[in-house]
Amino acid sequence: MDYVNGPGRNHLFVPGPVNIPDQVIRAMNRNNEDYRSPAIPAMTKTLLEDVKKIFKTTSGTPFLFPTTGTGAWESALTNTLSPGDRIVSFLIGQFSLLWIDQQQRLNFNVDVVESDWGQGANLEVLASKLAADTNHTIKAICIVHNETATGVTNNLATVRKILDHYNHPALFLVDGVSSICALDFRMDEWGVDVALTGSQKALSLPTGMGIVCASPKALEASKTAKSVRVFFDWKDYLKFYKLGTYWPYTPSIQLLYGLRAALDLIFEEGLENVIARHSRLAQATRLAVEAWGLKNCTQKEEWFSDTVTAVVVPPYIESSEIVRRAWKRYNLSLGLGLNKVAGKVFRIGHLGNLNEVTIFFSSLN
């Protein structure tokens, strides 16, 4: 009985899933439809064009998978790489750790570059590895743009500069699950070959849609990649794109309508304004944490995340107790510390459908 929801609405401040706008909920409140009718392909065509805008790409090809970010990870890897391929991947927190685990289980040769949790990716090590790789044995660089376990954001523009400096042809694969539509992300400008996100993060949708965007270079790589893939095979999607029906299997009709409404809201506010709003809310959250006399898990300002803040608690406090009390006493959902920072931090998500007043009242609690 301790865990019965209290009166009033639940105040959701985890770094995903996030609060869903009423307009999106209403858009999804509909019956099933025949996805082979003229209506769904027509809507899908506009969705694919508009999704490219949130990745800031004109040349990329998007894919909408009925899956989570984990499935989007697998799609990015298996469509571009072959078993045994050497990839460099950065371990900076729980979600980069999980992606590395997937890479290893898919039988890639993973060159792991590990940093202390609370630090960003060690790009000096990347530079040294690329400088030594004159035979171009490294086939891909895999990096999590925003690590939600520790509130760390990596500098993708610098990764591209390093690749260009050494004229290295490795593919550039980016997990943008908790960054795209909230943080500055420029697929074309930064030369990202595969980027991905999940519907339950800054898009403010329910969980269930993994969105992948592939550059022309990545599509070319997919023609010779030998990894086994079926459900996540880009080739199947491309075949149906050409046919004008778009779907190789049944999509979630309700999520498609939700995505339409979510994109409309983002474009109405303006993507740059959305990014600026996330920056304001993040700064306000960090100032509140400082006022509480607590510290940010992220060790340098250059790595501060604008979508999640991981708060370090004093050593005599178990952070999960703070999360439990917040839920029980205030109907307030905060994120637990994960893995190496379990019991040491709690996490405040400030992404998606939030504004200044919402953040203010969460800070008061």
How would you describe this structure in keywords?
single chain, 365 residues, alpha/beta, Aspartate Aminotransferase, domain 1, Aspartate Aminotransferase, domain 2, 2 domains, seven-stranded mixed sheet, five-stranded mixed sheet, 14 strands, 39% helix, SP_NH2Trfase/AEP_transaminase, transferase, alanine-glyoxylate transaminase activity, aminotransferase
Sequence stretches where pLDDT stays below 50 over 5 or more residues: none
Radius of gyration: 20 Å
List the domain count as a whole number. Answer: 2
- The third-level CATH topology of the largest domain is Aspartate Aminotransferase, domain 2
CATH class label of the largest domain: Alpha Beta
Percent of residues in β-strands: 15-25%
**Spatial shape:** globular
Q: Please report the total strand number as a whole number.
A: 14
Name of the CATH homologous superfamily of the largest domain: Type I PLP-dependent aspartate aminotransferase-like (Major domain)
CATH hierarchy: architecture of the largest domain: 3-Layer(aba) Sandwich
Strand order of the largest sheet: 2-10-9-8-5-3-4
Rounded to the nearest angstrom, the distance between the terminal CA atoms is 22 Å
Main β sheet profile = 7 strands, mixed
Total of DSSP H or I helical runs spanning 4+ residues: 12
- Element order: H for helix, E for strand: EHHEHEHEHEEEHEEEHHHHEEHEEH
Quote the average pLDDT.
95
The percentage helix is 25-40%
What class, by secondary structure content? alpha/beta
Question: Would you give an account of this structure?
Answer:
By secondary structure, the chain is an alpha/beta fold. The protein has two domains: 11-20 and 271-364, Aspartate Aminotransferase, domain 1, CATH 3.90.1150; 22-266, Aspartate Aminotransferase, domain 2, CATH 3.40.640. The chain is 39% helix and 17% strand. The chain is built from twelve helices and 14 strands. A seven-stranded mixed sheet has the order 2-10-9-8-5-3-4, with helices on both faces. A five-stranded mixed sheet has the order 1-13-14-12-11. It has a two-stranded antiparallel sheet with strand order 6-7. Helix 1 runs antiparallel to helix 9 and helix 5 (123-132) packs parallel to helix 6. The longest helix is centred in the C-terminal third of the chain and has 21 residues, at 271-291. The chain is globular and about 55 Å long. The chain starts with 10 loop residues before the first strand and ends with a helix. The mean pLDDT is 95. Its cofactor is pyridoxal 5'-phosphate. Residues 21-297 form the Aminotransferase class V domain. Its EC number is 2.6.1.44. The modification N6-(pyridoxal phosphate)lysine is found at residue 201. Substrate binds at residue 347.
